[in-house]
Amino acid sequence: MLDLRLYMAQRLSALIMAPLVLGHIAVMIYAIQGGLSVAEILGRTQGSAFWFAFYGLFVLAVSVHAAIGLRVIAHEWVGLRGMALSLFTWATGLGLFTLGARAVWAVTFA
């Protein structure tokens, strides 16, 4: 049953990530073609609840998606099982979420 829940969580996170990836790419193309500097970009994102929510959801979805994907790789290639595999999955997910959340905070509210 755990495998089915992880499978569904990874698929759901992919569904969430897909439009966010497209939005992120569109914003990056707009910023590059518009010749925006880092200061101008930060001026638009600082204090923005929208960008905080957009990239916060992005970070959460990526953290879940990547942790589950790396779990499968660690199981198949490294042979991790049981508690070691669970600890690896949680550490990976929480580590990615922490790094991403710090980045989101830095560009929106720091």
TrEMBL record:
<dbReference type="InterPro" id="IPR000701">
    <property type="entry name" value="SuccDH_FuR_B_TM-su"/>
</dbReference>
<keyword id="KW-0408">Iron</keyword>
<feature type="transmembrane region" description="Helical">
    <location>
        <begin position="85"/>
        <end position="105"/>
    </location>
</feature>
<keyword id="KW-0479">Metal-binding</keyword>
<keyword id="KW-0812">Transmembrane</keyword>
<feature type="transmembrane region" description="Helical">
    <location>
        <begin position="12"/>
        <end position="32"/>
    </location>
</feature>
<keyword id="KW-0472">Membrane</keyword>
<feature type="transmembrane region" description="Helical">
    <location>
        <begin position="52"/>
        <end position="73"/>
    </location>
</feature>
<dbReference type="InterPro" id="IPR034804">
    <property type="entry name" value="SQR/QFR_C/D"/>
</dbReference>
<keyword id="KW-0349">Heme</keyword>
<dbReference type="Pfam" id="PF01127">
    <property type="entry name" value="Sdh_cyt"/>
</dbReference>
<dbReference type="GO" id="GO:0016020">
    <property type="term" value="C:membrane"/>
</dbReference>
<protein>
    <submittedName>
        <fullName>Fumarate reductase subunit C</fullName>
    </submittedName>
</protein>
<keyword id="KW-1133">Transmembrane helix</keyword>
<comment type="function">
    <text>Membrane-anchoring subunit of succinate dehydrogenase (SDH).</text>
</comment>
<dbReference type="GO" id="GO:0046872">
    <property type="term" value="F:metal ion binding"/>
</dbReference>
